[in-house]
Amino acid sequence: MTATTVGPKALNITSKIKPAEQALRNPFIRLDAEDNVVVARIDVPAGVAAKSGNFVTQQPVPAGHKVATRDIKRGERILKYNTTIGFASEDVPAGTWMHSHNISFGDLVKDYRHGEAYVATKLVPREQRLQFMGIVRADGRVATRNYIGVFALSHRGATVARRIAEHFDEDALAEYPRIDGVAPFTHEQGAGMELSGEPMQMLRRTIGGYISNANTAAALIVSAVGEDNELNAFLEDQHLAEGARIRTLNIGAAGGTRSAIARGIEIVRDLLPDANRAEREPVSVEHIVVGLQCGGSDGFSGLSANPALGVAMELLIEQGGTAILSETSEIYGVEHTLTARACTAEVGRKLVARIDWWLEYNKGRDTQINGQVSPGNNAGGLANVLEKSLGGAKKGGNAPLMEVYEYAERVTQHGLVFMDTPGYDPVSATGQIAGGANMVCFTTGRGSCFGSVPAPTMKLASNTPMFARMEADMDINCGPVIDGDATVAEMGRAIFEQIVRHASGEPTKSEALGVGASEFVPWPLGVTV
């Protein structure tokens, strides 16, 4: 069997029923036979009897929220997907709306079972792997986009970097059709901080990772006087050198802001012809590296978009590709499901070490890992971080965990890997792209608007009503899973095929809207001085 290129058409999955007709269906979703709660498919008023089960709703239940299927005693575990998401804080009768007001966080005893459930992925033979239209760099790396980046080493160079990039609008790039854009990468660090140590190491690793990302064809690095992130130290630390692909610009040496902007524009003009020589060609999908994100989650995210994305990642991994799961604080409580299927005990222990770091770092702080989720997540039906983690971890599917990386560390292992990042999406995605992600998949239930460059973001809506409201921002609707019009497996296949189309150059919604140039947010770890 010869390798094939995924065609331009994906599975046609749409919701076939109108919202008014949904009330005729069972308004609740049971996720596991052992669960003592079900999830409301739609807004359910009080007094509604379940079509399957022996309860009547005691209170109105918002869509995405949970209902007790039987009487639950105080202190009893609340089970969703047959996994503990908390404990009843009071006695509740069947039909009770279950949320943060009557589900307590509690302490969990976890059996990490490092590597005991590991099952190696059965890879598709190389000659049979699917292909996409990628850009092969001289060193063999494969890109999905072709950007020139203008990088500020510290916030002092931000204005100059932005002005240089802004010059190269659509008209200025009209003669260079193979270049996707000239993007500024500015941030608020690099000066007034420790000269060495973990914060500086992370900042340099992040900027260096973006410069080295396959989607960055060339880079201009802008520096200023008095930066703690000094240019030569940065280049040496990141094993980078000025040459045909990497150029540098010092604002003071150039004669000040106005002169530096003019000089920077000249330098980028010099970089354009070589970057424009890039051509797309058929390559194996094993070169697709996807950063997995979820933001503005609701009670449906863990039922539709996240598990469907997990199926898509399993398909990608079988083809030799790579999926980067992150947001460490948002897998807390279910990390044992990952450590159990780690390829080695050492990899499992690496993940636990990062969880322990977060618990220590957040000790005594009013943060998510200590229980309460964001107001938006809570309104969407998530009672606490345990429930959010349960859904969030599903983005990686059931693939074995092959490696654990520090923030912005270069990802070299194929398969499902984990990168330690905060739960804040722009910071997390920034770390993944610095690690080598050439695509980002972002699930949302509440409608988070996000984009990224140089790696494009594909956004997945967890429910049909939100997708209908925000179709200009959302790339794919996973709501048919909730509506009963598609299975998770069918939706996963559709997501996989759409990922391949976007990797081949089809613009995502965020790209069409021009979202992404302001979403470069390195992790601001540490205290400024």
UniProtKB/TrEMBL annotation:
It comes from the Bacteria. Pfam families: GD_AH_C (PF20629), GD_AH_second (PF04295), SAF (PF08666). Keywords: Lyase. InterPro entries: GD_AH_C (IPR048332), GD_AH_second (IPR007392), SAF (IPR013974), SAF_UxaA/GarD (IPR044144), UxaA_altronate/galactarate_dh (IPR052172). GO terms for biological process: D-galacturonate catabolic process. Residues 35-104 form the SAF domain. The keyword Lyase applies. GO terms for molecular function: lyase activity. Belongs to the UxaA family. This is Altronate dehydratase. It comes from Caballeronia hypogeia.
